[in-house]
Write a structure and sequence with these properties.
The complex is a heterodimer of chains A (183) and B (149).
Chain A (H helix, E strand, L loop, with lengths): L1 H20 L22 E3 L7 E3 L8 E6 L4 H16 L4 E6 L3 H11 L5 E5 L3 H5 L7 E5 L5 E6 L4 H14 L3 H6 L1
Parallel strand pairs in A: 3-4, 4-5
Antiparallel strand pairs in A: 1-2, 3-6, 6-7
Chain B lengths: L1 H23 L9 H11 L18 H15 L4 H12 L11 H29 L6 H9 L1
Classes of the chains: A alpha/beta (183), B mainly alpha (149).
Chain lengths: 183, 149
Amino acid sequence: MPITVLAIFALILVVLIVGISNAPREGRKDIVSPLLGKSAPEFALPKLLEGGALYDGKSLRGGWHLVNVWGTWCGECRAEHAMLLQIKGEGRVPIIGIDWKDEDASAKDWLSQLGNPYETVVTDHDGRVAIDWGVYGAPESFLISPQGIVVEKQIGAMTSEVWQSRFLPHLSTGMPAGAKAGA
Amino acid sequence: MKLRALLAALALALALGCSAIAFAVDNTPPIADPAMQQRYVALINEFRCMQCQNEALADSNVGLAADLRLEVHDLILKGKSDEEIRDFLVARYGEFILLRPRMSLRNAWLWAAPSVLLLAGLAVALSVMRKRSRLPITDEDTSDNTADA
């Protein structure tokens, strides 16, 4: 009998320890996006440059893309800007910027002053597309596979550590089937 | 007398001030249909503000909360049901957006744990009682019966 009681006690102890060690730190919880492994949400938004022509989200298919949600009102975005320029310099993957709830004029100023890491910047003035992408805090970055699947997401500034440990591996190993057969 | 009037006026001013603050958070235009407006108010109290995390959409003046309130507002006007609106937000932000989590296989054990523990306790209690029942019976039971009659 004492063994059963001890076993029950040990089980409760294990549950408590696991629960406490998994508790959110600093009262915040990093939310795993339900988009991971699913198709990137469809959208059509005006481009910031090129006279506001519409950009269709379907253009993301066919090659790897990094989708970066930013705004000039966002301090962390300024902090990650150098990293985005470095990613552009590496030339592995084009970056599509979603300028979230921002003024076009300040966004253009930002890009001319800090440099433009984006292949295309689209403007989401009312934030509807950001909701479809489950964005809750800029900056956020999504890696989209050639099949249009969201394979990785970073909430907060992109750092060189995050880029190398979580994003780059997809680009070197996750080649589309066709490309592998051809190589 | 004067003091009383002054206090009443003060209380009124305070109450009005508070209600003005309470109304100021939500700038979404109210829905004309009272039933729909009621659903809207209930729903925005069910969802978490993702930026502040411990506030409901209804209580937050963060930009994203305002956008999400407008989204809920528009989905109701489009004729979506409460459950469809919940699904819409969960598909984008995950279960975490629900202040009251849904029951799922992943958290079912949480719901089951109290009854499992209760059953385990009962099992222990039963086996203890069974062990004790093997002890010689005292005559307390029979004396109780006779006293009743």
